Amino acid sequence: MLVIDAQREIRQAYVGGFVGQLVSGVLWLTSAALATWGSPRSAITLLVIGGMFIFPATLLGLRFVRRRATVSAGNPLNALGTQVALVLPLSLPVVGAAALYRLDWFFPAFMVVVGAHYLPFVFLYGMRMFAVLCGILVAGGIGLALYGPPVFSMGAWITGAILLVFAVLGRRTVDRELAAG
Fold it and tell me: What's the CA gap between 51 and 90, in Å, rounded?
């Protein structure tokens, strides 16, 4: 299988990241709501524990919209997808350290980690939009931590909204690709 064919299969099977980013965006916005009207502890707990269920929820969502939720066993990019998924939990100690230093840095630090996690998606999906998403989240997280107001929930609101926008962009890209044949 050629790389371009493997990328197309992943892009179409996962609808350009639509369902996964939709699930992630809703999770971030729910965490933002808890951070705004609840407590930092509940917001952090929801994002960390809920994040462990993003991929299973994505597969469920793909089945709900009647999409094939798998790629062929011969797809050489399957291993890369698994490795990319493991980047986030392995990076959580860095987010925790930032939050222990300054609680308001929890969401900005998480933005940087999530943004960096999206960079390999450029190759995995064959979609340059993930480089833009990476840049926005990394720059946004750094900018918010260094220059933003000390509003605990702000990074979560921003990230949730950005993820929803990019979910729609990914879906539109795949829909156009499928329509073109």
Answer: 12
